[in-house]
Amino acid sequence: MIELKPIRTEADYEAALGEVERLWGAPNGTPEGDRLDILATLIDAYEAKHHPMDPPDPVEAIRFRMEQQGLTRKDLEPIFGTRNRTSEILNRRRSLSLEMIRQLHDRLGISADVLIRPSRL
Fold first, then answer.
1. Where are the alpha helices (DSSP H) in 1-121?
2. What domain of life does the native source organism fall in (predicted)?
């Protein structure tokens, strides 16, 4: 059992991950469950600082959701308007409009914060 302390180094991080693996599935409200919650918080803080993740590109997010839900380009035509416009958006030749962002958020549950970002070329 490792000592609970801030994670400052990669070695601390690896030790904390090992401890989380050992404690995984511990019931809430038990000493082990509380320890797991504390370690998860410490790991999140360390990862946010040392291993930040960029938010996904809007087109990547749309493609990911299409794959998750088994959607085709044709399924997106009601959102984008036409087959040609759907192709332009998925090939990054056209930006999303505000109305498209709203519909993607409402119909597919993609975060508006992700959709408003500029698409990577």
1. 10-23, 31-50, 58-69, 73-80, 83-90, 98-108, 112-115
2. Bacteria
